[in-house]
Design goal:
With 312 residues, this protein is an alpha/beta fold. The chain has a single domain, classed as Aldolase class I (TIM Barrel). It has helices at 80-86, 88-93, 107-115, 140-143, 145-158, 174-183, 222-235, 250-259, 269-272, 276-290, 302-310, and strands at 6-8, 11-13, 17-19, 42-44, 61-64, 68-71, 98-102, 123-129, 163-166, 188-191, 195-198, 200-201, 206-207, 213-217, 241-244, 263-266. The strands form four sheets. An eight-stranded parallel barrel has the order 3-4-7-8-9-10-15-16, surrounded by six helices. It has a four-stranded antiparallel sheet with strand order 5-6-14-11, with no helix packed on it. Helix 3 runs parallel beside helix 5, helix 5 runs parallel beside helix 6 (174-183) and helix 7 (222-235) packs parallel to helix 8 (250-259). The model has no long low-confidence stretch (mean pLDDT 95). The chain binds flavin mononucleotide. Flavin mononucleotide binds next to strand 6.
Length: 312
């Protein structure tokens, strides 16, 4: 009987399949008709800030047929205080593995939000969103290694809950920011957030989104995510990687694990097929059985060994 239990650094997961921030509501209520949240490896909440945020003006999403979507939500969320009082109890009751995603504009903003949850044993990890492309200054922390280092080391002082740094693909060399994150004490890196993109409406003759640019996600970004995970695992084989970007099927998830991710998050796929994550979990079980694996962790990073052996 194959085993999907896995660990991402200090975090134990029932299986390596999590829901990605911003694609499962604030706390996953939307999935009630489809499955129980406790069946997943975990759920990552919407990014939560110290104060509630209204987000950007509509329209906020544009479909790019066959490739994915652009979004410019602008971090709409009810604020961490509301979340802790009204949504966290729901996730605890559902027996979900809970990862809280935190965002801010300054180090003090992040610290204020982390302080609300710093001692909560029910939280398995905190994901620091350093990489929202849809608000002004949203990429500052993930495009400057010094700023990433300062932010993460300050958060590390506040809590013993494992910290994952969610990084942006909108950089020249992802490994520079990964290094800064790990030097600062990050317990894992979530790769990747959305890729900056733009769509034009040929009828209005204007950009389709009010802020012009948006975050591109879905199948088209999978090779970008895989390349960043590849580079990161090659340079830092011991750093836990949470793989994200265009994962729609079990085959996609397996490619991420082979590349070096120890678990994956499902994002845009949830909008196409709300049961995608459960189908991926079932697909991983099949893959383990067909390949006679005792544990899914056996394949993490395996693609690198083969490349080394063949001298490629
Ligand atoms: C509509 C939408 C909202 C998102 N909101 C957040 C967010 O609040 N915080 C965050 O860290 N990432 C957010 N993301 C990024 C996703 O979590 C994920 O990193 C990205 O979409 C790439 O994965 P995918 O191609 O599987 O969607 C959002 C993505 C989408 C499509």
């Amino acid at each position: 009987m194959s085993n999907l239990n896995t660990t991402t650094g200090k975090v134990s997961l029932k299986n390596p399949v999590l829901l990605a921030s911003g694609t499962c509501g604030v706390a996953g209520h939307e999935f009630e008709p489809y499955f129980n949240l406790s069946e997943l490896g975990g759920i990552v909440t919407k990014s939560l800030s110290i104060k509630p945020r209204d987000g950007n003006p509509a329209p906020r999403v544009v479909e790019i047929p066959g490739c994915g979507m652009l979004n410019s939500i602008g971090l709409q969320n009810p604020g961490i205080e509301y979340f802790v009082k009204n949504e966290l109890p729901y996730l605890i009751k559902k027996n979900a593995t809970i990862i809280i995603n935190i965002v801010g504009e300054t180090v003090d903003d992040y610290a204020g939000a982390v302080n609300f949850i710093r001692d909560k044993n029910e939280i398995s990890a905190i994901e620091l969103n350093l990489s929202c492309p849809n608000v002004s200054g949203g990429l500052d922390f993930s495009q400057d290694p010094k700023k990433a280092f300062t932010l993460i080391s300050e958060m590390k002082k506040l809590t013993k809950i494992p910290l994952w740094a969610k990084l942006s693909p909108n950089v020249t060399d992802i490994t520079e920011i990964v290094k800064a994150s790990v030097d600062a004490g990050s317990d894992g890196v979530s790769l990747i957030n959305t890729v900056l993109g733009l769509a034009i409406n040929r009828w209005t003759k204007k950009p389709a989104l009010p802020r012009a640019t948006g975050g591109y996600s879905g199948p088209a970004i999978k090779p970008i995510a895989l390349r960043m995970i590849w580079d990161t695992h090659k340079k830092f084989p011991n750093i836990p990687i949470i793989g994200i970007g265009g994962i729609h099927t079990a085959d996609d998830a397996i490619e991420f694990l082979l590349c070096g991710a120890s678990c994956v998050q499902i994002g845009t796929a949830n909008f196409v097929n709300p049961k995608a994550s459960i189908e991926i979990i079932n697909g991983l079980k099949d893959y383990c059985e067909k390949n006679k694996l005792n544990s899914i962790s056996e394949i993490v990073g395996a693609a690198h060994h083969l490349v080394t052996l063949s001298g490629a």
